[in-house]
Design brief:
The structure holds three protein chains of three kinds.
Chain A: H1 2-10, H2 23-35, H3 38-44, H4 61-68, H5 70-101, H6 110-122, H7 125-143, H8 149-172, H9 176-184, H10 189-218, H11 221-226, H12 234-241, H13 248-273
Chain B: E1 9-20, E2 27-38, E3 42-46, H1 53-61, E4 68-73, E5 76-77, E6 88-91, H2 103-113, H3 118-131, H4 147-159, E7 165-169, H5 177-194, E8 197-202, H6 205-211, E9 214-219, E10 222-227, H7 229-234, H8 239-244, E11 249-259, E12 262-267, E13 272-276, E14 285-291, E15 296-299, E16 307-316, E17 320-326, E18 333-338, E19 352-357, E20 362-364
Parallel strand pairs in B: 3-8, 3-9, 6-7, 7-8, 13-20
Antiparallel strand pairs in B: 1-2, 1-4, 4-5, 9-10, 11-12, 11-14, 12-13, 14-20, 15-19, 16-17, 16-19, 17-18
Chain C: H1 17-57, E1 60-62, E2 68-72, H2 75-81, E3 82-84, E4 91-93, H3 95-128, H4 131-146, H5 149-160, H6 165-172, H7 186-210, H8 215-222, H9 227-238, H10 240-255, H11 259-265, H12 272-280, H13 286-317
Antiparallel strand pairs in C: 1-2, 3-4
Helix pairs in contact in C: 1-13, 2-13, 3-7, 3-10, 4-7, 5-7, 5-11, 7-10, 7-11, 8-9, 10-13, 12-13
Classes of the chains: A mainly alpha, B alpha+beta, C mainly alpha.
Amino acid sequence: MAELGMSSAVTRRAFSVRKMTGFTAVAIVCFIMLYAPLLPLVAYSFNSGSSIALWEGFSWRWYEAAWRNELVQDAAFRSLFVATLASTFATALATMAALGTTRTRAYRGLTAIYAMINQPLMVPEIVTAVALLIVFAVIKTATNYHGLVYLITAHTAFCIPFAYLPIRARLEGMDISLETAAADLYATPWKTFRRVTLPLLWPGILAGAMLAFVISLDDVVITEFVKSPGQDTLPTYMLGQLRRVITPEINAISTVLLTVSAVMVTFFFFLNRKKM
Amino acid sequence: MNSAKGGPAAVQALNVSKVFGEGDSAVVALDNVSVNIRQNEFFTLLGPSGCGKTTLLRLIAGFDHPSNGAILLEGEDISGLPPYQRPVNTVFQSYALFPHMTVAGNIAFGLEMLGKSKPEIDATVTDMLRLVQMEELKDRQTSQISGGQQQRVALARALAPHPKVLLLDEPLSALDLKLRKEMQIELKRLQHETGITFIFVTHDQEEALTMSDRIAVMSAGNILQVGTPRDIYDHPAERFVANFIGETNFFQAELVSVKKGAGKIKLASGKTITATVPDGLVANGHITAVVRPEHARIVEPGASSTLVGTLENIVYFGTDTHFHVALGGEEAFIVRMQNARDDAGKFSTGMNVGITIDANAAQVLRD
Amino acid sequence: MTVTATHEGPVRPTKSAAEVAADATQRDIRNCWLLCAPALIVLLCAASGPLAIMLMYSFLKAGDYGGVLWTFSTEGWFSVFVQRDIFDETLSLADAHVSIFWRSLKLSILTTLLALCLGFPTAYFIAMRPLQTRNLWLFLITIPFWTNLLIRTFAIMEMIRNHGIINSLLKSIGVIDEPIQMLFTDFSVMLGMTYVYLPLMVLPIYASMEKFDFRLVEAGYDLYASRFRVLRRIIIPLVKPGIIAGSILVFVPSLGAYVTPRVLGGGKRMMLGNLIELQFGQGRNWPLGAALSITLLVIVMAALLIYVRSVQRRDGGHG
């Protein structure tokens, strides 16, 4: 009898098939852990004092300071310039590659193409970075050209897989009979591409371009090794600053970068959620 | 083939083969197929999935190229032309409506690609919308209309450029039964009104029998028999055709004599009945013959009955009843009789019954 | 039907059907290659090609002020694990390198395990949410993944500094008197890497859990399994592909980490990435740097290969 009584007491909280003891707690810790460190980072960017530990009141002064700092301005423009060009190139190349690798019968060399496109995702960044350092050092000595082309080329290369993946996913989800139908209705291959494939692929291309932009904007390692002197981007500028006394100016720059990434990823998220 | 009778050819397939893949993994989808489709006819390619009917359709449309042989359109070889140069349009199984265009935009697409003038396009689109009764929905997105309406748009889109031949790849398979019946009649009407040759692909025998002027029954990459629905149903020349279309009783018999396609066959019971014999078969003994269940009658055993057996099972279907009669062979002979109002309970299982077969109802198979 | 289209008359082709079919296939494949070519060229110039050149550099002699001398030498590879005494030329194990290799491996494995312990329940938690909110939870995991790695490392740094939030908090509630030195330790590097790479663990595990059929769990309970046994015998084996994928995705970047150990390890707690950088910076030993890079690459490729193999075996096993 006693045992029966106990078991009824236990089952008063209905047995849930799906629950695992403690998992929810760990998950909540996990979510807190992901976001908690960002809160003080953002908060102290509004500190009126010059400490990142002591709160002295709200002010925009560090945003103003960052805005007026010529080094920051310079780095910010360079970041945007490189990210815009690299993501545009990478998206164009990735779109073509996606068209050349999906919806055809497997042909010889396809695996090699996949491997090459995805290489930047597999090889550790530091390895690519020093390899580029070696090659570009040779070219820089030979040509005496130290411009931004090196950075843009390197960024384009590692952005390609990020642009490629959403575009390819979109293409694979696309009904191939739509293009067949266009050909059936007297559209030449080029017209089929312009009137049917491209409009339907557009959300994927946009998503790919945004991911590429964010990836380029955030890159530290490859930029750090490839850039010529005086070619800091925002992330490498920040990396340099971390060695000095840190002021909330860094927090202000970080907050702006965080916002840009978050907004773009949110946009990407909703773009991708829309049905084909 | 029989191109001599019944008007000029719209589409001819001459010894067409299609092999997919290479080496060991090669699959023969079409094996030396020849067929002649006449102008203005409603021609159906009927067969189970994988029989090559869709492959043949895609070869006519130009989406695939034949491995061998030629496709002729009104006598000219079009095998080398890409799909966008063939005056042939397709209604796809999935409809393949462009999701980023309106109903009217979809219908106008082919005309735009042909470089028609704006007023001409508008006029044709209006005509087409009226033809398929979709005038009100012309500015809708294709995702906002029902399956049946999408079907109509797909039809209108394919008809708008007034192709010489319209290809329909199982276009009704996604519709529910009621809508399917409606669309069957609708398709017949459209074919009649436009005078365009329709080539219709289906695996649904009933659909084929209802709609077609002629049917080609296909199996394993071959065309087994071409004929009118009546021909195919009443006089299947091959075992596969007899089996695939409708219900059939198979039985062994002896071909005694043949004269102009009509023959006499001697059954196991000793009785002799008349039967239709396919071309080129001579009287040389053992054959298989078929009789449709509704072409036989169940009677009291007696002198008039062609076959005698035991009534094994009676299955009631509402409009008619199936009688399973054991004749001593492996399978029971099935007789289908319409249910008259007052003959319920005339026969019961276990009874000895006779079967009579209607005159000329038996068909000898080519085997 | 008033409108009739004017169609181009069919052209009589001069080729046989078989030739046309073969030509079409050939043309398709050529077009595919042409479409891929620009991307492949850029990748060859700025990804694959440089790796090959680096391999060559690892067999050259180090220049005195960085760069290389164009003479063949195995010195670079030699000094990955062995060091030559400056005075008497005796050889001994390069302790510094070995300990950095060991730390890299240790921290990467620990990071992977920690991320797994946190990531698995989180993925499970997300997979259990109702469909409407599931995407939102997933989104919350994805956002940090796409935000700047340096900034997130910086955020962790501020948290665990001696005057950071955690120490201040502990001090104010009287647990400690002196701040705990967390920054510039192995712990801080591991914590940072776990924080940074955690989404990479959660996402693939979630992906395989999403496909998981929960009636199997019900069947497990029905057959007298406890919660733990259901987890061990049913759920984990079935989401194993996700677990392996997640572990590889965390392990690989951890092993090659550069920014996180540089910021949180403070130059003392070096990992492989920092050792490589050192050879191209102050160390001025490019061949050694190249050899180290290739060693790192080989380890990473081996890990990826094990992953691919295990996926293939599973696919093969189930037909």
